[in-house]
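Justification of resources, computational component.

The compute hours requested in this renewal are based largely on the per-chain cost of generating structure records like the one below. Each record pairs the submitted sequence with a full structure-token output. That output is archived, and it is also reused by downstream analysis tasks.
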Amino acid sequence: MRINFNFINHFIPLVVLCLFAFQSASAQNSTRQITAKVDEYMKSAVEIERFSGSILIARDGKPIVSKSYGMANVELDVPNTPKTVFRLASITKQFTATAIMMLQERGKLNINDNACKYLADCPAAWQTITIRHLLTMTHGIPGVNGLELGALRGLPVPWDQWLEATSKKPLDFAPGEKFKYSNSGYTLLGFIIERVSGKSYGEFLQENIFTPLEMKQTGYEDPLKIIKNRATGYRYLPGEPIANVPYAEMIRLYAAGGIYSTTEDLLLWDKALYTEKLLSKKSIDEMFTPFREMYPGKSYAYGWWTSQKFGRTEIAHGGNLAGFITYIARFPSDRVTVIVLSNNGRGSSGKISNVLSAIVFGAKYEIPKERKAINVASSVLEKYVGEYQAQFPPTNYTIVLENGKLIFTEIGFIKAEMFAESETDFFLKTADLQIKFDKDTNEAVTGFTVYQGDGTLYEIVKAQKVK
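The structure output for this chain reads:
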């Protein structure tokens, strides 16, 4: 038999071309499906949950979806766009951690060093705290609020003023003993960056991260600085008029929460983390390695959370402050990134990020729906009255019955009426928060599960009834 090599030479490229065309069409269909499902979901998120902000989904560093919703400034009638600037709040911590790792690579410090080596007048109780303890929130230094800090005496945050307020308190635990989410450690890291580099925190990040990556709409916030395209923070609840959130100077949050950016700039940041433009692969891998669990299944690394979602490792972080709720999620095995920035302080950026990720990976998700309250007999409501306690995070709750209404209180945070969707399922109107009561085989109430749509730390909290 004689083989026609000319036919084969022409046939093989044709087959390859057809396969390429098929794969391209398949990928295009997938992108179209993602876009359609995102549009369907976001339409309800805007109408039902009043989402306002920008979203971005990217694969291999290229946007699949980049859209904005609502208003950046209601008073001036300015809509949100992909170039709108949002306060990042605690997403700032990953930039601070990167700066510390940069200084380590340059031989300026070692994260195993005692932090007090680089700080003046450290309290005796802090002498065994290492820079790694600060990065991983295992340091035990308590937080300080605005009242304790007092009026700022200058810019940037004065070290002596912050030290004066913080050092009065004992450590929450021995360094390295436990994990506790706190801004204090990252504030100290900001001071260390300044002492070691000889530059202000904002200058160091600008020169070493933002400018090299051409993140032109990203920076450290200065209350005197004019920031173009900056969004205003609002509080917008279903059934209520939109309201301004009182302006807060981010300078108080410093290296723990003082950065602003856009979805477009954060994609540049994400892409750089797959390269060695900023850090060596060794340092990046260390920064993403889980160090200590906050609760089973969710651990903290250096400025990033790690957990398992959709059968994949998610490396993520959120922020929540002064009318802004933010979230960035990275799935390195698939080179997928989801960014959600909101200027509605009762938004649901964490939940929206989860749903957008689920859409990309073909997992199940729910479309937001209007919650309708029903009447429940007082005899049923009375069973839920009591005190409850959660282990992750350590939190106390009380539920009381006042004038036929259940009142939910999270000590120090929220007090609101609970509305019933069924005899065991309730929701709040003042936050994206739902509560499902648990019962034993004898129908006795044993506890509840809280689903927090706008929770950037704890999406689900389980509490046990103690009284």
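DSSP finds twelve helices and 23 strands in the chain. The longest strand covers residues 312-321.
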